[in-house]
Design goal:
With 105 residues, this protein is mainly α. 75% of the residues lie in helices and 0% in strands. Helix 1 crosses helix 2.
């Protein structure tokens, strides 16, 4: 799962900032390869992480369900706050970057 997460984050990095270390045709190939795939993989892994965080294959009940719900709510709030702050920062600088983190929150 960590390797898949690395591939997703690396792909989004390549899409947003280009591939300065490649130059030439590898840059174009990497951008085309990761276009859309890295976001989909990142979204899929977010769901897998939620499943692992809230009980794996056995849905929680009772107190475990309450604790899992609280953990998910805290994580959602943190992602929302971080994403909104990042969106404001990029808006203030004029840097054109689509911030998707608030949608995960």
């Amino acid at each position: 799962m960590d390797v898949a997460r690395f591939v997703a984050v690396f792909g989004m990095f390549c899409i947003h900032f280009g591939v300065p270390f490649a130059g030439g045709w590898p840059e174009v190939w990497l951008a085309q390869f990761f276009s859309g795939r890295s976001t989909a993989l990142f979204t899929f892994l977010a769901g897998v992480s939620l499943a692992l965080m809230t009980g794996r294959s056995t849905p929680p009940t009772g107190r475990a369900l309450h604790d899992a719900s609280r953990r998910v709510a805290v994580r959602a709030g943190a992602l929302l706050a971080l994403g909104l702050a990042l969106a404001k920062a990029t808006e203030a600088t004029g840097f054109l970057l689509t911030v998707i983190i608030p949608f995960y929150g």
